[in-house]
């Protein structure tokens, strides 16, 4: 079996339970801003947030929109469904700041993440976080979940000057990590940003498919549905 020396790991929803932690943070935000005054059914706010968030992050990864636009719009859109609400840009930024503060304190990891990192460390792999997440938030999340200090480098799109799946991001990641494409494996849950980007950069890939009813749309080096499966591969 091929031996890798370097592992590029996506962070959000690969190791860190971003969605689960954000669900809790959204509930906290709803209470803090007393949004029950505008939403008779809180699920309307939550559902519209997730719709907007998924769309905006997809567009952000393609560099179609800026970080500032994402921050404002992912709250402006759902808040606009509140009865009598006309959210201003300032109000949306306040909501975003609160939400990110709440998110960054949550410790939740994806099932098997801690076990995997412990195992990979004992196997002497060089591990590198590769993320499109915001700089100040990602470091707080790493500390909150206890994984800060476990990686050889933390490679973020804001430092790279480009988002995954851009070739520019992966060129930067290879430079910072001093890894070689032929001995590097990219592990991630987002097929478009993590897997297609890494494949285009000449890396082997491990697609963490959290929705196994929808298999990878094109061949990958490995496809897993649980992080523990990587222990049998690496």
From TrEMBL:
Keywords: Hydrolase
UniProt GO molecular function: 5'-nucleotidase activity
Pfam families tied to this protein: Hydrolase
Highest rank taxon of the organism: Bacteria
Protein name in UniProt: Putative hydrolase of the HAD superfamily
Organism field: Xylanibacter ruminicola (Prevotella ruminicola)
């Amino acid at each position: 079996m091929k031996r890798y020396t370097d592992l590029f790991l996506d962070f959000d929803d690969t190791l860190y339970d971003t969605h689960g932690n954000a669900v809790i943070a959204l509930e906290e935000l709803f209470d803090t801003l007393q949004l029950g005054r505008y939403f008779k059914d809180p699920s309307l706010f939550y559902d519209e947030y997730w719709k907007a968030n998924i769309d905006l992050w997809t567009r952000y990864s393609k560099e179609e929109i800026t970080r500032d636009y994402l921050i404002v719009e992912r709250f402006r859109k759902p808040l606009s469904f509140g009865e009598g609400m006309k959210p201003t840009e300032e109000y949306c930024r306040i909501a975003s700041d609160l939400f990110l503060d709440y998110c960054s304190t949550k410790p939740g990891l994806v099932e098997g993440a801690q076990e995997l990192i412990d195992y990979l460390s004992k196997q002497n792999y060089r591990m590198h976080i590769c993320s499109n997440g915001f700089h100040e938030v990602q470091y707080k999340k790493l500390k909150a979940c206890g994984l800060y200090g476990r990686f050889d480098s933390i490679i973020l799109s804001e430092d790279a000057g480009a988002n995954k799946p851009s070739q520019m991001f992966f060129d930067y990641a290879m430079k910072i990590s001093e890894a070689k494409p032929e001995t590097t494996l990219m592990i991630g849950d987002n097929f478009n940003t993590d897997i297609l980007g890494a494949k285009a950069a000449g890396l082997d890939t491990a697609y963490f498919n959290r929705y196994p009813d929808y298999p990878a749309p094109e061949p990958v080096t490995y496809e897993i549905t649980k992080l523990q499966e990587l222990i049998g591969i690496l």
